Amino acid sequence: MSTYTSYMLLTRDYSRTLANLGKTSQVANAAQYYQANIGKVKTVDDLMKDQRLYTYAMKAAGLEDMTYAKAFMKKVLMSDLSDVDSFANKLTDKRYVEFAKTFNFGTDGKVAAVSDIQSDQQELDIIGLYNQRTFEKERVANEAIARYSSAIDGMTSVNDLLLPANREFFNMALTAYGLGDQVQYASIPLFRDMLTRGVGDPDNPLYSVTNVAERDKLQQFVSAFNFAPSGTVAAGNAQTFEQKSATIAGYLEKSGASTKAATLLYSAETYRQTIGSITTTSEFVANKSIYDFVVTAYGLDPEAVDENDIIAALQSDPNDPMSAANQLGLAYRRMAEDFNFDAAGNLPVGDTAQTADGIERTATRYLASANAPSLPTT
What we know:
Layout: H1 3-12, H2 14-23, H3 25-37, H4 44-49, H5 51-60, H6 70-77, H7 95-101, H8 120-153, H9 158-162, H10 167-176, H11 188-197, H12 212-223, H13 241-255, H14 260-274, H15 281-286, H16 288-297, H17 307-314, H18 324-328, H19 330-337, H20 356-369
Helix pairs in contact: 1-8, 2-8, 3-8, 5-8, 10-13, 13-14, 14-20, 16-20
């Protein structure tokens, strides 16, 4: 089962997903900071001076796009909600009134002496809403990635990428390579010319761009696709798996459309797709993304462990109590159990580096070690 399918199954159990999400380090740390510091706030200015608190509350209310508008939000929080003519009550968008209700500020911007800035229930409501917003952001990002992955595999020409109906995928690719500022203004004929000429054509219009940074971004973008001068797919798919993976990873990073958990889920999917290309322990160690993924999955630090110890463990017999895997420790033994390398660091004829079950165990360990929401097993 693919990570995308697993993720969609996971999101159907909404309450469980929110519970899992609340346990991830990124989300849990944000909640802990909020609970530890919100009680220290005595005025609206106090809240807005603490950017972590203020941003957390705004995101929870679905108002993160208005985080910059502090003067406006100050009027909202200082509104008298019992007065129908107050600033918040006169706003069409009722999210502002709901936001103001979650705090106990007076019209002078101060917390009343007889009350806390928020009751315990109000704090819990904010934290619950924050988790919900984060979950929704992840769901939207992962659905977009799934659509992109499927659509790009079915494209047979550059026109498919540039069709108005596929504008979402073209824009995602632009964003992935740092060209998001061109999404609204991209010239379709110009990009068609760049994509069909390729980076090897000195007459490609991308080389006429004088800004070196922008030219480099355009070159990376064009290099991410495989279109021939005729506009057809040169060979295979419009993007290889590696090109598609790099594009999706870039989109997650550049767009801010996803949290750490979604990135980890996609890392697991990438691992599932690429581990089959590894045939020796030398290739395993040389492939940094796979090496780091596996070492992390078994609770070790890729920067701290000795590569030779990893190789020795993978080439040893985990059933032999005197083997390197057993002498080095439990993490090394478990790693050796999940891989099929022989004593020479090769794979027996007909074997892959891991069985399907081994791949799933490694991917699950990685998600667990990184505090990502766990995937369903069926």
